[in-house]
Amino acid sequence: MMMKNKVLILFFSALLSSTSYASNVNDFCVADLKGPDSLSGYPCLPPTTLTDDNFVFNLQPANTSQFPTIKAGISTAFVNEFPALNGLDISVAHVAFEKDGFFPMHSHPDATELIILVEGEITAGFVTGMNSIAYLKTLKPGDLMVIPPGHLHFVANSGNEKATGFATFSSSNPTIHSFNNIFANNIPSDILAQATFLDVAQVKNLKARFGGSN
């Protein structure tokens, strides 16, 4: 009898656990973008105000004229564009590269990135922080590459034609720390040259390219 009771307790515990998990899976919180953004995301719109359209988003193709300096473009479905992603730890972007286009070194400290190539050829890679090991691969259509969170990485069109694909992230609003930020600021060029192992002329050239000053 005692054994039977233990089995019943375990069964109902498992059932409650399963029900709780299902409930968590089905929970959602469509963002109220008028509210404050916090570490846990935006506040929720009242469920009674939602319609089917709140859960659908039309992701436009990326336009490479967006960033002519790097011959690349990105079209995002992050929480600010697609509020239904709020709190779900997922987002997606469409990316496009002209021949010789690239995204320079950058990182996403709060998100894993999964690159999915659709057309063309790209070379992507990341560098580990502990021992500076580089993982580098040329991707063909259908190839996927994962970039662990916080790792410096890049993507470059290594083919002879336009390349397009998708990048998915384990965050609804991934943070981007970009190489461009090093030069898109007003830190004096002589100080920045000292900090980056570049000469002042190179720093000034990069500042002009990325919108920096001084």
From TrEMBL:
Q: Where is the signal peptide?
A: 1-22
Q: Which Pfam families match?
A: Cupin_1
Residues that bind oxalate, according to the entry? H108, E113
Which residues are in the Cupin type-1 domain?
A: 57-204
| A single MF term (Gene Ontology) | manganese ion binding
Q: Which InterPro entries match?
A: Cupin_1, Germin, Germin_Mn-BS, RmlC-like_jellyroll, RmlC_Cupin_sf
Ligand binding (Mn(2+)): H106, H108, E113, H153
Query: Can you cite an annotated GO cellular component?
Result: protein storage vacuole
Q: Which superkingdom does the taxonomy of this entry point to?
A: Eukaryota
Disulphide bond pairs: C29-C44
User: SMART domains recorded for this chain?
Assistant: Cupin_1
Q: Tell me where in or outside the cell this protein is found.
A: Secreted, Extracellular space, Apoplast
PROSITE patterns, A to Z: GERMIN
What keywords sit in the KW lines?
Apoplast, Disulfide bond, Glycoprotein, Manganese, Metal-binding, Receptor, Secreted, Signal
Q: Which family does it belong to?
A: Belongs to the germin family.
Could you identify this protein by its name? Germin-like protein
What is the scientific name of the source organism?
Answer: Glycine soja (Wild soybean)
